[in-house]
Automatic annotation (TrEMBL):
<dbReference type="Pfam" id="PF01381">
    <property type="entry name" value="HTH_3"/>
</dbReference>
<dbReference type="InterPro" id="IPR001387">
    <property type="entry name" value="Cro/C1-type_HTH"/>
</dbReference>
<feature type="domain" description="HTH cro/C1-type">
    <location>
        <begin position="41"/>
        <end position="93"/>
    </location>
</feature>
<protein>
    <recommendedName>
        <fullName>HTH cro/C1-type domain-containing protein</fullName>
    </recommendedName>
</protein>
<dbReference type="InterPro" id="IPR010982">
    <property type="entry name" value="Lambda_DNA-bd_dom_sf"/>
</dbReference>
<keyword id="KW-0238">DNA-binding</keyword>
<dbReference type="GO" id="GO:0003677">
    <property type="term" value="F:DNA binding"/>
</dbReference>
<keyword id="KW-0804">Transcription</keyword>
<dbReference type="InterPro" id="IPR052359">
    <property type="entry name" value="HTH-type_reg/antitoxin"/>
</dbReference>
<keyword id="KW-0805">Transcription regulation</keyword>
Amino acid sequence: MEFKDPMGELLSSLEQIVLSRDTIKVAPALQAQPEIVPEPQRLRELTGMKIDEFARVMGVTVSSVKKWETSQSKPSATARKLMQLLHANPRLGQQLLE
């Protein structure tokens, strides 16, 4: 039986949703610079989320977000991918909170 990573599948599905909404505008930007991830604090401010909301959307603790924002630690690859999706569609964060 093949094991499937549920978080990976969720992020893949979210990516398809985000990219299908505005393929012409969003997809080339992500393809041209796939490793570009905005700073966590900047992204959080762009999305209009409080630190606790951002932590909930990212699936981490407030402490983890604070560490990212002060460069004491770096987000995981999964978190960076979700941050790319949030950057491509800032409203996604609010949708995930609902």
